[in-house]
Amino acid sequence: MRNLESEEHRETRGFGIDKLNFYTPNQYVDLVELARARCVDPDKYLIGIGQERMAVAPVDQDIVSMGANAAEPLLDDVTRASLGLLVLGTESGIDQSKAAALFVHQLLALPEGMRVMEIKEACYGATAGLMVALDFVRSHPDRRALVIASDIARYGLDTPGEVTQGAGAVAMIVSADPTVLAIEPGTVVASRSTYDFWRPNYSTVAFAQGKYSEEVYLAMFRDAWNRASQMGLTCPEGLAAQLFHIPFSKMGRKGLRTLQGMMTDDDYGRLANRFEDSIRYGRQVGNIYTGSLYLGLISLLENDSSLRPGDRMGLFSYGSGSEAELFFGKLCSGFQSELNSAGHRAMLEGRTKLCVEEYERVFNAGLVQDGSRQVLERSDFDAPHYLTGLDRHQRLYR
């Protein structure tokens, strides 16, 4: 009888995000100052792009250390012991063979008996990791998974994409009976090969066809929304918020505007108001690629006090190249207890502002590539994990 009851419970329990957190480096450049240095009207950045500040990653904070810094506050002994899977989504890989997730696994002192992997599909990578994690916990409801999105967006100095750079990481614990967001099983996904954004192995900066990328993003969202509507998944009158992948806030705003006329003014107004809360953190951090959608989720939850358990929201994930997925979730009872509004705001407000010359110097700093020994200075003494240097082509962390 106990086995039958267990199976019945497994069919009805929810699966989703139990805890989540983000980390961003402790320095930034003000986009008004950057605009003036580039002889551009600041409103082009503040309004046209929709960004205010851009996080700047020092050389000792890479995707490994940022990912570990985002995940560390989520882990206690019980959570560590329950983990059976670690997935790191990134498009800022540090090795063509060894997964960055293995470095994170060691830094966080996680159990050896678990699966560890890195996933790449541009900005969709973390969502792919989340879906893998959901499948894992559905099959192993007594285990948890750790999903990390960690990226450093680089386009080059004084380039059209420079203002959409950024750096940071989001970490999520995925489990059965989650505390934050229960993910619904019904999703809409689409994949197609495009050259809207890419970075060849031989380049340290990305290439993009900006207008074309916007067209693909919007077309894939419209198609996903229409398909979801046909499946009965959208239900605008019952949707508390619609979140987007935010490479810069104006892109998500354009996605939202495609819904005008497809629902009542009241329903659209509710989504539009909550969209503003979802971009507050992103406007201060910039583009963090795989983590941008989930930074928006944290921003919404920590800046909108009107949200309640049971509220339903849509999440649109997009990765250039291209892959997109629209999925839905409901806020769980007690989600407010897992938020860290004061800590995240203190982190953002306590950062050091770099002048444009300092920012350019940090941007141009790099790691040795000849196998020699390099020792790095620690940039953030509030962050537990950082890259200490290189020796014989091996990265050394503490």
CATH class categorisation of the largest domain: Alpha Beta
Strand content: 15-25%
Distance between the termini: 50 Å
CATH fold type of the largest domain: Peroxisomal Thiolase, Chain A, domain 1
- Inertia-based shape: globular
Number of domains: 2
Count of strand segments: 18
Determine the number of helices (DSSP H or I, runs of at least 4 residues). Answer: 14
Going by helix content, strand content and strand pairing, the class is: alpha+beta
Mean pLDDT rating: 95
The amount of helix comes to 25-40%
Instruction: Tell me about the largest β-sheet.
Output: 10 strands, mixed
What is the CATH superfamily classification of the largest domain? Answer: Thiolase/Chalcone synthase
Radius of gyration, in Å, reads: 20 Å
InterPro entries: HMG_CoA_synt_C_dom, HMG_CoA_synth_N, HMG_CoA_synthase_prok, Thiolase-like
GO biological process, one term: acetyl-CoA metabolic process
EC number: 2.3.3.10
Domain Hydroxymethylglutaryl-coenzyme A synthase C-terminal: 273-365
In brief:
The chain is α+β, with helices and mostly antiparallel strands and 398 residues long. The protein has two domains: 2-180 and 339-397, Thiolase/Chalcone synthase (Peroxisomal Thiolase, Chain A, domain 1, 3-Layer(aba) Sandwich); 183-335, Thiolase/Chalcone synthase (Peroxisomal Thiolase, Chain A, domain 1, 3-Layer(aba) Sandwich). The protein has 14 helices and 18 strands.
Describe this structure in words.
With 398 residues, the protein is α+β, with helices and mostly antiparallel strands. It has 2 domains: 2-180 and 339-397, Thiolase/Chalcone synthase (Peroxisomal Thiolase, Chain A, domain 1, 3-Layer(aba) Sandwich), CATH 3.40.47.10; 183-335, 3-Layer(aba) Sandwich (Peroxisomal Thiolase, Chain A, domain 1), CATH 3.40.47. The protein is built from 14 helices and 18 strands. The chain has helices spanning 2-12, 31-37, 42-49, 63-71, 77-82, 100-107, 125-139, 210-230, 249-257, 265-278, 280-285, 292-303, 341-349, 356-364, and strands at 15-23, 27-30, 53-55, 83-89, 115-119, 144-153, 166-176, 181-183, 188-191, 197-198, 207-208, 239-244, 312-319, 323-331, 352-354, 374-375, 387-391, 394-397. Strands 1, 4, 5, 6, 7, 8, 9, 12, 13 and 14 form a 10-stranded mixed β-sheet that branches. It has a 3-stranded mixed β-sheet with strand order 3-2-15. Strand 4 (83-89), helix 6 (100-107) and strand 5 (115-119) form a beta-alpha-beta unit. Helix 2 (31-37) crosses helix 3 (42-49) and helix 4 crosses helix 6. The longest helix has 21 residues, at 210-230. It is globular. The N and C termini lie far apart (50 Å). 46% of the residues are buried. Residues 1-12 have low confidence and may be disordered. Its EC number is 2.3.3.10. (3S)-3-hydroxy-3-methylglutaryl-CoA binds at residues 41, 155, 254, 287.
